[in-house]
Design brief:
3 domains, five-stranded parallel sheet, Rossmann fold, seven-stranded mixed sheet, elongated, alpha/beta
Length: about 650
């Protein structure tokens, strides 16, 4: 007699196999309760995980994913998978420093075959696994292993998903695509494919009629095969899912993704079809927890204790800061009020990029393209060359997905697109797949591209207006996750205009010069204050404002007057702002004692807070002050050559 199936007692997914549907359904109830309890404490993706509980249990009860392979698209829906694969007892550490990642991670478990975080790529990756396992044998059914890709309906609309699907069908791979269709990504899914899937959802009555006809066919001797053929003809004529079969993919669905018996049966049937099969399951985002089900967008990614009773109000004396995202959202609405050419574009992230207000105020000038960054960027290029002023708001890590379009359809055409690059820098709990540490490096080589970073809310608004007004070239404005200082330094009326290649000096001092960019200006100013108050060292601090073009007049002046120069950026050291300054020095014969501060050449793991990651990278004010103190004291103890005065350009 088998022991009761309890989540806390699971040793591995093997404990699921051979269990009754009733036992597994009880486990699903326990998993769902555990998700609500733990994710509301730690923060993380709640709604998407509540929606895939039965699917995940069914997958692990049918397959052995130490032999077969399971690939999650994005993997923000992998929490039940983690609970079933030996990580349940670590869930209090979810998204905490040194704890469980909020996504699949190869270093965590042999059941995680892809360190995932972006959408649309699972089918292609699983196709590669299936190709490599062809002829190997040893799968859970005794033949070659199966590759299974679990994809959401929004990710399924990405172009790369169809590239992978058509390749897999052409190669007749042992691949099962599980389509988790809940009508949402973060926001509601958009586009023609979403409408097509909606038509399939609405055809469930026809599917049931087909299933009854098929059962009847099998029960009637002699004429059963003819009736079954007639039923197949009727299904193809009436049910829209057959478009996938025209691609050579066996389509089954739509099926109830919360009916465990149906899920298991469909997966088992798919293993008897020795080619690519698409199983289309309908699920409910936030299933089983009313606050998440009633507001799927809010419950997609929850903050710790989101649904608990709020604690004491913050100190009224503390300055209230808006997030960089909110500052941008308000600024672009104000700009669009004055400038009818402004259109806003996002790739499935209207709230995350701050454009929800714009969408409400200017619905005819707002464009959510879905998870299609390549299309969004190329479309922005076309809009720009026809006289519009597109503001394309995409996270730094996701803009990488449209890199070729930034080159081909924007930079090469000198199209005046404004890229609003949110989450440019360290992102805390989301981990390495979401770090925005590479945008300066990948955008800086393009001729004519203007790269800038405001230091506060005042300059974000001013920079955005300057970028839209410049109709001869593309701009990229970057800012990090977190809160923006309202005003660092002089008020807007006395600051230099946002002219490309013009920096701003914020403090004066004879002991060295600090060149900071974007949000790191605040840390640089604070570090300079610490050295002034504690060490009687006075540093000159500049807000560089532009990474491309650099303020070459400023650099020539600074290098002539200062032996010690430091650059500070929230970006990878390779290819970033410090690299641009070092290149200028090399090209102009300047040889300062150059100290570059940024993120080292490694992938940054998730942490409980972004502030922890800044400190680990040496980018907080105390770390900067400590580094500069050591550097300046070392320099004062040795013989210093006078600074080399470079030739002016």
């Amino acid at each position: 007699m088998t022991s009761p199936l309890r989540l806390a007692d699971l040793r591995s997914p093997a404990d699921l196999r051979g269990r009754s549907v009733e036992e597994l359904e009880e486990l699903c109830v326990e998993i769902r309760a555990a998700l609500v309890e733990k994710v509301c404490q730690t923060g993380g993706h709640l709604g998407s995980n509540l929606g895939v509980v039965e699917l995940t249990v069914a997958l692990h009860s049918v397959f052995d994913f130490l032999q077969d392979r399971l690939v999650f698209d994005v993997s923000h829906q992998c929490y039940p998978h983690k609970m079933l694969t030996g990580r349940y007892h670590r869930f209090a550490t979810l998204r905490r420093t040194g704890g469980l990642s909020g996504f699949c991670h190869r270093d965590e478990s042999p059941y995680d075959v892809l360190t995932a975080g972006h959408a649309g790529t699972a089918i292609s990756y699983a196709s590669g696994l299936a190709e490599a396992m062809r002829g190997r044998g040893g799968g859970s059914d005794g033949a070659d292993p199966w590759a299974v890709a679990l994809v959401g309906d929004a990710g399924f609309g990405a172009g790369v998903a169809f590239e992978g699907l058509t390749y897999a069908a052409e190669r007749d791979l042992r691949l099962i695509v599980v389509l988790n269709d809940n009508e949402w990504s973060i926001a509601r899914s958009v586009g023609a494919l979403a409408r097509y899937l909606s038509r399939i959802r609405s055809s469930r009555t026809l599917h049931k009629a087909y299933e009854r006809l098929n059962e009847m066919a099998h029960s009637i001797p002699w004429v059963g095969s003819r009736l079954e053929e007639f039923g197949e003809v009727m299904r193809r004529a009436l049910i829209p899912g057959h478009v996938f079969e025209e691609l050579g993919v066996n389509y089954v669905g739509p099926l109830d993704g919360h009916d465990l018996a149906v899920c298991r049966d469909a997966l088992e049937r798919a293993t008897r079809i020795d080619s690519v099969t698409l199983l289309h399951f309908l699920t409910e985002k936030g299933r089983g927890y009313a606050p998440a089900a009633e507001d799927p967008e809010r419950a997609h990614g929850v903050q710790p204790r989101l649904f608990e009773v709020p604690g004491p109000a913050e100190d009224d004396a503390a300055p209230v800061r808006r997030s960089w995202t909110v500052v941008f959202g308000e600024a672009v609405v104000a700009l669009a009020e004055d400038e009818p050419r402004v259109h806003a574009i996002t790739a499935a992230m209207p709230s995350g990029t701050g454009l929800a207000g714009f969408a409400e105020r200017f619905p005819e000038r707002f464009h959510d393209t879905g998870i299609t960054e390549q299309h969004a960027v190329a479309m922005a290029g076309g809009m720009a060359v026809e006289g519009l002023a597109p503001v394309c708001a995409i996270y730094s890590t996701f803009l990488q997905r449209g890199y070729d379009q930034v080159f081909q359809e924007v930079a090469l055409q000198r199209a005046p697109v404004v890229f609003a690059v949110d989450r440019a820098g360290l992102v805390g709990q989301d981990g390495p797949t979401h770090m925005g540490l590479y945008d300066l490096a990948y955008l800086r080589p393009f001729p004519g591209m203007v790269l800038a970073a405001p230091r506060d809310a005042v300059d974000l608004e001013r920079a955005l207006r300057a970028a839209v007004a410049d109709r001869g070239r593309p701009w990229a404005l970057r800012w990090p996750r977190g809160k923006a200082p309202e005003c660092l330094g002089p008020s807007a009326g006395v600051r230099p205009e946002w002219i490309p290649g013009r920096a701003e000096r914020l403090t004066e001092g004879p002991d060295g010069c600090i060149l900071a960019i974007g949000a790191q200006v605040e840390a640089a100013l604070e570090a300079a204050r610490i050295l002034r108050d504690e060490d009687d060292l006075y540093l000159e601090v500049w807000d560089a404002r532009f990474v491309k073009p650099l303020d070459e007049d400023m650099l020539a002046e600074v290098m002539a007057r200062h032996r010690f120069v430091a650059t500070v950026e929230e970006h990878a050291l390779v290819g970033g702002f410090g690299s641009a300054v070092a290149e200028w020095c090399a090209d102009h014969g300047a040889a300062p004692d150059l100290s570059r501060h940024g993120v080292g050449d490694h992938f940054v793991p998730h942490a409980t807070t972004r502030e922890e990651q800044l400190a680990a990278a040496g980018l907080d004010a105390l770390s900067l002050a400590r580094a500069w103190r050591t550097r300046l004291r070392g320099a004062s103890e040795g013989a210093l050559d006078p600074p080399v005065t470079p030739a002016r350009p």
